[in-house]
Amino acid sequence: MKKDKINVGLIGLGTVGGGVVNLLRENADVIKRRLGVSVELVRAADLDASRAKALGLGKDVYTKDARAVINDPNVDVVIELIGGYEPAKTFLLEAIALRKPVVTANKALLAMHGEELYKAAYAAKTAIGFEASVAGGIPIIGAMKQGLAANDIQSIYGIINGTCNYILTKMADEGRKFDEVLAEAQKLGYAEADPTFDVEGIDPAHKLAVLANIAFGTPVKFEEIYTEGISKIKPEDIEHAKELGYKVKLLAITKVVDGEIELRVHPTMLPADHLIAKVDGVFNAVYVQGDFLGPAMFYGRGAGDKPTASAVVSDVMDIARDILSGAKSRMPVLAFKKEGRKAMRVRPIGKVRCCYYLRFTALDRPGVLSKISGVLGRHDISVASVIQKGREEGGAVPIVMMTHDAVEKNVRSALEKLDGLDVIAGPTVVIRVECGE
Predict the structure, then answer these.
(1) How far does Cα 244 stand from its chain's mean position?
(2) Catalytic residue annotation
(3) Domains of the chain by range and CATH?
(4) Predicted local distance difference test score (pLDDT) of residue 364
(5) C-alpha torsion sign, points 228, 230, 233, 238
(6) Helical H runs in 175-258?
(7) What sign does the CA torsion over 364, 365, 368, 370 have?
(8) Which of 150, 261, 381, 434 could make a disulfide contact with 376, Cβ separation 3.0–4.6 Å?
(9) Lowest mean pLDDT segment, chosen from 87-96, 321-330, 400-409
(10) Are strands 396-403 and 383-388 parallel, antiparallel or unpaired?
């Protein structure tokens, strides 16, 4: 029988859930014109009844019981927007077991337990939509699964945490310290009361796990992603970067090198004229390199109720088209057929090769530069440029060096030697530099 509407069940009426409710109402006509049928919210669950009341959801729609949504035979698509690992994972698995397609924005769950969900969906021959799990409303997942499907993806560089990008932009533009800008971001609602997941790189690492899986068709273990945040970045290093023609960004990076996959999140210096280096404030961007397409960048708002709701409803509409056409598993869960996915070895951070920014705090003595250069040279690290600043209080002199490309393990070994020298007054500051893209 031909369906005259698609019925949606929603679990979670927080910021994003509220955005979905409002979008389905406000853009009902646009959605119907595109699909040919309406998409209607028929059941919605949240433990907080005041949220449903604020959204104008009546007793015929609202329930406190998530399973009343999942098990309702009238619900065609289940949306999970409660976040966290449990009970979100259980709810999704229960819906999938009923062969109901599901939509989620839960990047942490996908990063940590995605394989269990993907396997269940493959077995049930149903769909998981997760466009909203990476970069908010930017349609990067759809682009990777469809628009770039014929390309062998070579690399991805992502600014996929708006909190960190806002902080680094303010530090660069106004010369302010990290702690001061973080406090401002919290007041403005750009940072959580506990900002650890954002500023220590955990949130973008979750998103990188999702992106790499889609890009390369390989299972990704979250614990294998090298993760480093921005809390130790100093204004003076941002200023030195400017002087050298670079900008500092927190990048999520994945690429294939010699058959191994790199997975890393860390502060990175990029040439100031690089397209992604120009992405400032709370905005996100994903820069993808395909073998036939070449470079492409996807840019927009990476968080908020409206952008994220846009991505959630786009998944619902994509699934709706399959339901209306009678298609089953038209698009594989991860854009690769189950048998087409293959495990790839993750390249250890010690094997990564890139350029490096090094800031030494050295004593003002003759021969210091030659000692530093000598140690670097013995570890196969060549110096591209040097900036020596005036003497600081206490007699120390900042020395900034940019290296040519070098192997990480060699850099670490060299710094262990250098930081032990009697002419070095403090730990060396290290920031990786993407110099070859």
Answers:
(1) 27
(2) 207
(3) 5-137+305-340 (3.40.50.720), 141-301 (3.30.360.10), 349-433 (3.30.70.260)
(4) 76
(5) positive
(6) 178-188, 196-199, 202-216, 235-244
(7) positive
(8) 381
(9) 321-330
(10) antiparallel
